Amino acid sequence: MNKLTNIGLEKQDSVEIADKLNELLANYHIYYQNLRGFHWNIKGIHFFQLHAKYEELYNNALARIDALAERILTIGQKPLHTFSDYLRVSSIQETSNLSGDRETVEATHQNLSVIVNLERDILAMAAERDDEGTVALVSEDINENEKTLWMLRAFLS
């Protein structure tokens, strides 16, 4: 019996990596939805800047969601695709009724920190298992997310 996937990864490795990628996918979906709410409901003197920034962030998150789901499929596994699964698996909590600049930026920073920490775990796991495709995908995302975390922290300072 062949123990390799169609792209040459060990099947058990692909299952374990996909589990972590699905966890990241679930967190990204809740992060995305939180950003949509912030975009729609932001109020105050920073409305114009944050309204635009939240739109930029949720569009980026949506692109990452698609890339993650496609990577999970590429390594021979199945991406989660129901909100009940996302809520069950995600470490990020849904937010509601936030509309102030500081509270929404703090929540965004907190949510994105969860994502970056999970990505670091996935990066180490994928590198250990010679899954260069996942390493490249996650490494690129970490770089962008760390820059966003820095900007969010600067706003809060």
UniProtKB/TrEMBL annotation:
An example Gene Ontology molecular-function term: ferric iron binding
Ferritin/DPS domain span: 19-156
Keywords: DNA-binding
Gene3D superfamilies: 1.20.1260.10
Domain of life of the organism encoding this protein: Bacteria
InterPro entries xref list: DPS_DNA-bd, DPS_DNA-bd_CS, Ferritin-like, Ferritin-like_SF, Ferritin_DPS_dom
Record-linked Pfam families: Ferritin
Family classification: Belongs to the Dps family.
Protein name (record): Starvation-inducible DNA-binding protein
Organism: Pontibacter lucknowensis
